[in-house]
Write a structure and sequence with these properties.
heterodimer, A: six-stranded mixed beta sheet, disordered N terminus, B: about 65% helix, about 0% strand
């Protein structure tokens, strides 16, 4: 990488030796039964409680992300990609190490349901307000969000409760809401996978715009094509460890060689 | 820095620049990066919360209207639910058990209805509080906002619900001979204080409920015990005449009984100041301030931990 390009680089996310450990209650033999639950409660407070299993999901990941970068995260299922994103978003505590971020990163995941009993319309307004937009901003951008999501392409669906949406429609609306605001750091966790081809093209365009607006975008995806189309740098995680970090082509080639066997 | 990364892992990040040689922590300080998910200070938190006031209001209203959106009668249930509730209690306690000792029919029925509505306000705030975080994990995990917005918003929803009940209550009071007067204005400060108290309690329950969702199963029993102990359907001093004084005092000074008594005193002509314990307004204010402050600080203390697991 040329020197002149690196001079003006401003870091937006710094992960410093991040370890994340999940503690799972009720894992292991027979822990679902009432007596087991009781004995668990009685033993509470005496050191490491039994019946709680630790899962070391991310092991010592360090990297620095810069402004204007779009970073893809790849790795097999359960390799710690989503966990790492949630730690960056500040939603999971790190067991060891620290994540430093510029502003508040926003995480956009597939299972991030908004309020399913409310209409799409209300969800747009509430989502915007919750992200800290003002009422005027939302009024201005409302039509843009709805058009972008494409919810109304097949009729007036935006006035129906979100529980009536298909999973693809809901994911599209969620992405549209989150993408309406300019984020310093936006993380997208396979949210594009459910959208149709037309929507994917639209959202890839939006991701490129967000990058231009001096943000950093993280993208988790199992589609190497969408990583190739949007990202210029890729982190490859395996079993919670950072296996490779480099330009998209290089890492993807190694990943495809490894998984294609 | 850990060395678990493999060769080439740092190919991009180690380009020669002025930032080389800085530790991640130093680099973060240089560019003003902050630790992700750290809890803001108390005043900063209040400021953030104030910034989300439109969200809090909109969310409570949306929840209120969504509540009966699946029912055929729709918003009519806002009024019908409290009315039916009052009817059931009147049937059991007024007609069958006859707990109206020491009160005339004209006083007892508004007395009972007030008690049911005012207690329901606290009860539903607590129940909504328990689920405020644990029932909205999707929202908590998707978007960043001060988490206290949720329990506060749910308490506001209950307050709006109560206003519908108040329409029913006014009708009942008038039907039994208590007419609107200046004293009715005292309902406002009483309910404002109760709202602050409820919000504090909801904040505490929200933190507890986020860690132990089992509370949602347990709380109905606690709340029912509290209801029977607070004199919703009987007059505490009359019922406990033969018992030691401290029991009646304990029950009368509990916040639920205090707020109920204040609204009754304001509303019902035949329910005079003699029925109120001493220093009742000060006690009401003290409960509100105490619970409001304790609840808020207690909730804020765990701000960075909500939505995990």
């Amino acid at each position: 990488m040329a020197d002149d390009k690196t001079q003006g680089r401003v870091p937006t996310v710094i992960a410093d030796d991040v370890h994340i450990v999940y503690r799972v209650n009720g894992a292991g033999g027979g822990k679902g039964s009432a007596t087991a639950a009781l004995s668990r409660i009685l033993r509470r407070g005496k050191g490491e409680p039994r019946g709680v299993r630790k899962v070391h999901a991310v092991r010592g990941v360090s990297f620095t992300a810069y402004r204007g970068e779009a970073i893809g995260l790849i790795g097999t299922n359960g390799s710690g990609k989503s966990t790492l994103l949630r730690a960056i978003a500040g939603l999971l505590p790190t067991e060891h190490g620290k994540v430093y971020t510029d502003g508040q990163p926003s995480l956009l995941g597939v299972n991030a349901a908004l309020m399913s009993d409310l209409t799409g319309e209300r969800n747009v307004v509430l989502g915007g307000l919750a992200m800290g937009m003002s009422r005027e901003e939302i009024r201005e951008r409302y039509q843009g969000i709805v058009d972008f999501s494409g919810i109304n392409e097949k009729g007036d669906f935006i006035t129906l409760p979100m529980r009536t949406y298909s999973s693809g429609m809901a994911a599209r609306l969620r992405f549209s809401i989150a993408a309406a605001k300019n984020h310093d750091v936006l993380m997208i966790d396979e949210a594009l996978a459910t959208g149709d081809r037309k929507f994917q093209i639209r959202s890839e365009k939006r991701i490129r715009e967000l990058r231009k607006e001096a943000g950093t975008v993280f993208l988790v995806s199992h589609s190497n094509k969408s990583i190739r189309d949007t990202c210029d740098r890729v982190l490859w995680l395996e079993k919670g460890e950072l296996l490779m970090d480099g330009p998209t082509d290089e890492v993807l080639k190694a990943y495809e060689r490894e998984t294609g066997k | 820095m850990s060395d678990t990364t493999h060769d080439g892992a740092v190919a991009l990040s180690t380009s020669p620049s002025a930032d080389d040689g800085l530790s991640p922590a130093e680099l973060a300080t240089k560019y003003g990066l902050t630790v992700s998910g750290a809890r803001p200070g108390l005043f900063e938190y209040i400021r953030q919360l104030w910034g989300r006031r439109h969200f809090i209001m909109a969310f409570s209203r949306a929840k209120l209207t969504a509540q009966y959106s699946q029912a055929k009668l729709g918003q009519l249930w806002q009024v019908a639910t409290p009315l039916l509730n009052a009817l059931v209690y009147y049937l059991i306690f007024g007609l069958i058990l006859g707990t109206r000792k020491g009160m005339s029919q004209e006083v007892f029925i508004p007395f009972l209805v007030t008690g049911v509505f005012v207690f329901t306000f606290t009860q539903s705030s607590v129940m909504a509080g328990v689920r405020a975080i644990s029932g909205n994990l999707g929202l908590v995990r998707a978007l960043h906002f001060p988490r206290a917005s949720l329990p506060i918003s749910f308490s506001l929803q209950q307050l709006q619900q109560l206003l519908f009940s108040m329409i029913v209550l006014a009708a009942v009071a008038i039907a039994f001979g208590s007419y609107p007067g200046l004293s009715w204005l005292l309902i406002i400060p009483a309910l404002v204080m109760q709202f602050v108290f409820n919000t504090g309690l909801a904040l505490i329950m929200a933190r507890l409920g986020s860690k132990t969702p089992d509370l949602a199963q347990l709380m109905p029993f606690v709340m029912r015990t509290w209801m029977y102990a607070s004199g919703v359907m009987f007059s505490i001093p009359v019922m406990l005449k033969d018992k030691p004084d401290w029991i009646a005092n304990l029950l009368q000074y509990n916040p639920a009984a205090i707020y109920m008594d204040l609204v009754r005193f304001a509303l019902i002509d035949g329910y005079g100041a003699g029925n109120l314990p001493a220093h009742v307004w000060i006690v009401a204010l003290a409960w509100a301030v105490l619970m409001g402050l304790v609840g808020f600080v207690y909730f804020w203390k765990a701000e960075e931990r909500y939505g995990r697991g």
